[in-house]
Amino acid sequence: MILSAFQEEEFSDFSSFYNNHQKLIRSVLYRLCGKEDLDDLVQESFLKLWRKRKSFKGKSKITTWIYQVVTHLGIDYLRKQKKKILFQDQHFVKGPEEQASLRNLVQEGLKELSSEQRVVLVLHLLEELTLQEIGKVLKLPLGTIKSRLYYAKIKMNEALKKKGISHEDSL
Fold it and tell me: pLDDT tens, 37-85?
């Protein structure tokens, strides 16, 4: 298979590919799977991406392709481990104590979500992907993405409300 000029540049050597994308991959996997097996998952992701590099057709952004591969790897991990997502978000509050407290509350809320809802919520709110990009990553119709996000927000708000936090406008 002949690589395009973009593919030649993007995949010229593993070290460059790693340096360009390791922060994104680590962030997505941390938010989806937590930190317990993070290093192994990052390594597995890079190996998978590097082996599949010729399958990248260039019809979408490279980050969309990376999100797709890494998100599916994370979902597989969650299914195998039957673990609940760990959540860390730097966007809500500034102080370390406030962050830890809110992070714990949000973790509890995320436990109420299905893995499908959790993935859509993380990709949309934390990774800031558009609904269309999430649809491409997960290979799902836009209506399904909207539905999962809608119900994820409802469940999350209900869980946070039970803990005494009412900020329905933020989700």
Answer: 899 999 999 999 988 888 888 888 888 899 989 998 988 887 776 533 3
pTM, two decimals, is 0.57
Give the Cα separation of 76 and 80 in Å (integer).
Answer: 6
The answer to whether the Cα torsion of 157, 30, 38, 41 is positive or negative is positive
Three-state secondary structure of 22-56: HHHHHHHHHHHHCCCCHHHHHHHHHHHHHHCHHHC
Largest Cα–Cα distance of the chain, in whole Å? 58
What is the rounded distance in angstroms from the CA atom of residue 55 to the CA atom of residue 35?
29
A 10 A CB-CB count for 27 gives 14
Q: Across the chain, what does the average pLDDT equal? A: 79
